[in-house]
Amino acid sequence: MGSGTSTQHHFAFQNAERAFKAAALIQRWYRRYVARLEMRRRCTWSIFQSIEYAGQQDQVKLHDFFSYLMDHFIPSSHNDRDFLTRIFTEDRFAQDSEMEKCSDYESIEVPDSYTGPRLSFPLLPDHATALIEAFRLKQQLHARYVLNLLYETKKHLVQLPNINRVSTCYSEEITVCGDLHGQLDDLIFIFYKNGLPSPERSYVFNGDFVDRGKDSVEILMILFAFMLVYPKEFHLNRGNHEDHMVNLRYGFTKEVMNKYKIHGKEILRTLQDVFCWLPLATLIDEKVLILHGGVSDITDLELLDKIERSKIVSTMRCKTRQKSEKQMEEKRKANQKSSAQGPIPWFLPESRSLPSSPLRLGSYKAQKTSRSSSIPCGGSLDGRELSRQVRSSVELELERCRQQAGLLVTGEKEEPSRSASEADSEAGELRKPTQEEWRQVVDILWSDPMAQEGCKANTIRGGGCFFGPDVTQQLLQKYNLQFLIRSHECKPEGYEFCHNRKVLTIFSASNYYEVGSNRGAYVKLGPALTPHIVQYQANKVTHTLTMRQRISRVEESALRALREKLFAHSSDLLSEFKKHDADKVGLASSQLCYYQQK
């Protein structure tokens, strides 16, 4: 009897041991499987980000190339000078007054057949909600209402400071949203899940509303409408994509021209003006600083608060504004007279290389936390003033080329172009922003955090800087802040803490690279200023996919984009490979992969 009991216990122990080993083996296999999926996900993410940042670098290089040509081109014959004179004397710099702008949209008739939303000012909450419903049903807002809304938006933005001050005392909570990039589904989902803006529910949208997505116009109309309805509860910050030069590359310009073929140019010109007036940052309870990109070791909030932000038309370069038509004409005559002495050689020894991009803020000192910059101003040429006029003419010719490429409807009447900030100055001259002011804006719109100490050039994007935890801590202590909220970077989970949880990145465009590639997120702040983060996926398809299916789908999209990139540079790659294939074996190696990454 005792022997049978002992045998049963022995077998039970063996079974338990076998079950434990089996469970451990299954767990080990599962962890390996998950680790492989995670490695695939990270590699896919690296491919997407590398391609995205390479595109930004390409734009900076292209801008450098054209800037170099415009800085150094000098007419070599009387025919060239006559051609340039004709260009300069064209009435292309006429200024529109505010009343003329107002009458522009008032002269546009809305046909009786129009079934989309109609707006009347001042706007009411019902108008804003009607816009959401109309855009959800794929309806389009008429050009008259678009221009009217933009005109009213600018009137409101002009009254705002560079840094908005917001308090949690007047609302239950403040919701901060990151990049949307033209993805209307994400904006609608945020309002559905978190509630529409109201006096009890404030919002801060932290820039990059446009580009890449297909519904950038609709997002702007909704955001501007709610800002006019709730001016004290709804706030917008400028991002690096609220920039007409960036819009040319990343799709927003093309979207506007496709949707509004007749009035597209006027809408784009007005939007350029509106973007210049967007506030640069928001401060909650004087403790939480919200800005789009980041900070640097020279960020000065007091200086940022005093900058005439409307003059920062584009962060791609520090642009000089002409003073008046009369002064411009005098300069043209002087240039024509000086150029009659003969051509000036432009290929001087000190200008043999392309100037560095204004976004790569100059050279850097040896210290970790120090950064100095210089903005290239071109060579010391006698015809410098003429070069600047040539630059203006080349820009006009580039605009004409863009129109011929399909950005302007055939037969549309050519409208006189004007600078965005010219209409804002009724009298007197407009000075250009100083180098220091321009650097301040570039840094807060383009910078990214890094794990290392110090501050260095953001060579990946080509603009702004990488700032370390010491730079963050220095700024927080200087202005008695608790933490920073920024956007500007897509994160797999929609958010990310860094710098000892003193910097929070919020990205609100889910499925940014591909369906299933990332979540979107927004953060809610109450009176205690404790961040409460909400994640979401706006696309219903992602909820039906397994983890393996989701990663496989994103991986396939990344590899397809990489193949397209390699094919576009196949000639250069083959040439480079042959240089380093001494044995002529024609096989890939780790060394060839290194040159491929370069």
CATH-level-4 superfamily name of the largest domain: Metallo-dependent phosphatases
CA-based shape: globular
Give the biggest sheet: 6 strands, mixed
Q: Taking strands numbered 1, 2, ... along the chain, how are they ordered across the largest sheet?
A: 1-5-6-10-12-11
Could you tell me the mean pLDDT? 77
Which runs of at least 5 residues are low in confidence (pLDDT < 50)?
A: 87-103, 319-329, 338-370, 372-383, 407-429
Structural class: alpha/beta
How much helix, percentage-wise, in residues? 40-55%
First-residue to last-residue Cα separation: 79 Å
Corresponding CATH architecture of the largest domain: 4-Layer Sandwich
What are the key terms here?
about 600 residues, alpha/beta, Purple Acid Phosphatase, chain A, domain 2, 3 domains, 6-stranded mixed sheet, 5-stranded mixed sheet, 19 helices, globular
Give the SSE map:
Layout lengths: L1 H71 L5 H12 L8 H9 L18 H12 L6 H15 L5 E4 L6 E5 L6 H11 L6 E5 L10 H14 L4 E3 L7 H7 L1 H8 L4 H13 L4 E4 L3 E3 L10 H6 L18 H15 L44 H24 L27 H12 L1 E2 L5 E3 L7 E3 L1 H11 L3 E4 L8 E4 L4 E4 L13 E6 L6 E5 L4 H4 L2 H22 L1 H10 L10 H8 L1
Parallel strand pairs: 1-5, 2-3, 3-4, 6-10, 7-9, 10-12
Antiparallel strand pairs: 2-13, 5-6, 8-9, 11-12, 13-14
Description:
With 598 residues, this protein is α/β, with parallel strands linked by helices. It folds into three domains: 98-107 and 119-317 and 435-544, Purple Acid Phosphatase, chain A, domain 2; 318-338 and 383-417, no CATH class; 547-597. The protein has helices at residues 2-72, 78-89, 98-106, 125-136, 143-157, 184-194, 216-229, 244-250, 252-259, 264-276, 301-306, 325-339, 384-407, 435-446, 469-479, 541-544, 547-568, 570-579, 590-597, and strands spanning 163-166, 173-177, 201-205, 234-236, 281-284, 288-290, 448-449, 455-457, 465-467, 483-486, 495-498, 503-506, 520-525, 532-536. The strands form three sheets. The protein has a six-stranded mixed sheet with strand order 1-5-6-10-12-11. The protein is globular, with a radius of gyration of 28 Å. The chain starts with a helix and ends with a helix. Residues 366-375 have a biased composition (Polar residues).
